[in-house]
Write a structure and sequence with these properties.
Layout lengths: L1 H21 L8 H15 L4 H16 L6 E7 L2 E8 L5 E5 L7 E7 L12 E9 L2 E8 L2
Antiparallel strand pairs: 1-2, 2-3, 3-4, 4-6, 5-6
Length: about 140
């Protein structure tokens, strides 16, 4: 984001300079804003799909469940997904928080729960889980402090 802002500032300064010196508009002045708009649109339109990375999610879930005690892993990637935290619970569930949708007191992501609906996390707040398929659920946790 800082790079986009910095190059945007350079574009504005260069455009003002060209307009001041030449007193006319040139075609290259549109290149940066058009390329940026296309890149941002592409980033929003082509979002990763859970089903594409499901085998990798299952492998990570099994690795966490195979540890003798509940385990936690922070800041890693599964396919094109950025995972903030993945942790196993005493009940045998594995939670994966999605960095793109988890902010402040709201956490969301996926739960691997082979024994049915996932158990509510131990934190206070509102918890909901929607079944995707098989042992997988999409969850949202809004924590109250």
């Amino acid at each position: 984001m800082a790079l986009v802002i910095a190059t945007g500032a350079v574009w504005v300064v260069d455009s003002i300079y060209v307009l001041w010196k030449r007193r006319r508009w040139t075609w290259w002045m549109l290149a940066w804003p058009v390329a940026t708009a296309l890149g941002v649109a592409l980033a929003f339109l082509v979002q990763p799909k859970f089903d594409d990375a499901r085998p990798e999610f299952e492998k990570a879930a099994q690795q966490l469940l195979n540890k003798p005690e509940p385990a936690t892993v922070n800041d890693f990637e599964i396919g094109r997904f950025e995972i903030g935290t993945a942790y196993s619970t005493q009940q045998g569930d594995v939670f994966f928080s999605d960095k793109r949708t988890s902010v402040f007191s709201t956490q969301s992501g996926w739960v691997y729960s082979p024994d049915g609906a996932p158990a509510r996390p131990t934190r206070d707040g509102t918890f909901s889980a929607d079944h995707i398929d098989g042992p997988w659920y999409r969850y949202t946790l809004i924590t109250t402090y």
